[in-house]
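REVIEWER CHECKLIST
Item 1: Sequence provided? yes
Item 2: Single chain? yes
Item 3: Sequence as submitted:
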Amino acid sequence: MYQVFKPKNSQAMKNLLLVILLSPLFLHAQEAKENNDKESGKLQLGVRSTLSSFNHDGTNGYGVGGQFRLKFGSRLNTEWFADYITTDISGLARRIDNHIGWAVQFYPLNNEIAKGKFTPFIAAGHCFDYTNITKNTSDGLSLRRWSSAVHSGLGTHYNITDKFDVSLSALYMMHLGKNIDAQPFEDAQGNEQVLIQVSDLGLEGHLLISLSLNVYIADLW
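Item 4: Structure as written out by the authors:
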């Protein structure tokens, strides 16, 4: 005589069967999560050249700088930078700008870091700016100011190799602080002069274009 075996707890069997059926989905989700985290923690170092355009005094500034990047995910990167920019004002004065700041870079389209591919990004951040304008005359009159700025813009990396890229970005920087201006003019004798003055608190904007070379040096986590 045969006896049919029946589980004492049918609900437990149902739960076990459900776990077995759903386990491939859990494994796939875990694998996708691990793949997304491969970019997190990567540290880059870079050097850059800069162009400051659309300045309030109508001149362009050129400079150099450095930066490092730290990634927090496959689509999220942070960039921490410092720039030294000089501007010649009609041969009458010299302007120096120092930027120290950071930006968040978000990759909305292609986020794959692979040789021969572009990785476009949207950037936004903040920086501090120290400006000094000095006359090219014997009196050497000099005025300076500190300001704070927010910036946003677009850019892209071109991946020469899996660990080395060239990056181009254009950020519009809006500074909040006292405006400092240098305005060339001709005096009554027809000699070229420059007037340097600091005005009241206000907004001053310019476009900062940077071209950089960057290399991955470590994976921090």
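Item 5: Key structural point noted by reviewer: The CA atoms of residues 156 and 216 lie 16 Å apart.
Item 6: Recommendation: ____
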